[in-house]
Amino acid sequence: MKALVFSVLIAALSVTGCQQVPPNAGGAGGTAGGGYGTGGTGGSAGGGYDTGGYGTGGNGYGTGTGQYTPAELRNPSSILAQRVIYFDLDRSDIKPEYMNILNAHASLLTAYPNLRVRLEGHADERGSRGYNVALSERRGYSVLDYMQVKGTRSNQMEVIGYGEEVPAVFGHNEAAWSKNRRVEIKYAGE
After folding, report:
1. What are phi and psi of 50, to 5 degrees?
2. How crowded is residue 37: how many other Cβ atoms within 10 Å of its Cβ?
3. What is the mean pLDDT of the chain?
4. Rounded to the nearest 10 degrees, how much is the dihedral formed by the CA atoms of 170, 123, 120, 70?
5. Signed CA dihedral, 7, 13, 16, 22: sign only
6. Which sign does the torsion angle of CA 85, 135, 148, 150 carry?
7. Which of 46, 186, 51, 55 is nearest to 115 (CA)?
8. Is 0.85 surpassed by the pTM of this model?
9. Which residues constitute the signal peptide according to the record (predicted)?
10. What are the backbone dihedrals phi and psi of residue 32, each rounded to the nearest 5 degrees, phi first?
11. Is residue 67 within 8 Å of residue 112, measured between CB atoms?
């Protein structure tokens, strides 16, 4: 009886457990930007994923063929037209509402390694001059660090801390101060 049960078990395993799925059958993963396939070749130019494994060669954005183009920098309805990141008082951490903007700029810079930006940090008028320069630099480096994590090369970015010297809005109230606590993303050549 034991031999019969064992034989049936082996037969069942051979039918269900040994089926082979041909590798790379099905669609293709992303070829130029974060695509997802159902079983085919991984991303050839950036970050595709398929059931056979991750593609090689990038971060989801192909060279020059990513989601954004430099022409969109001049399009006022593009997310790339948003180039000011605001901060809370005495803070240099990036608020969640600005991450999509920075992701878009990082995506563009990653796809176009010849582009360069200057990250101009600013502070409101409160605090000493030295404190405000240091704070504005910290804000600039927060943006740089975030974009670097997203794939932007460090040689594409530079940081300048202006402190309180270049206010966006003149005034001595919270409405003016909130507009002056910022980092502006400036592209070279603009």
Report:
1. -140, 180
2. 21
3. 76
4. -70
5. negative
6. negative
7. 186
8. no
9. 1-17
10. -145, 20
11. no
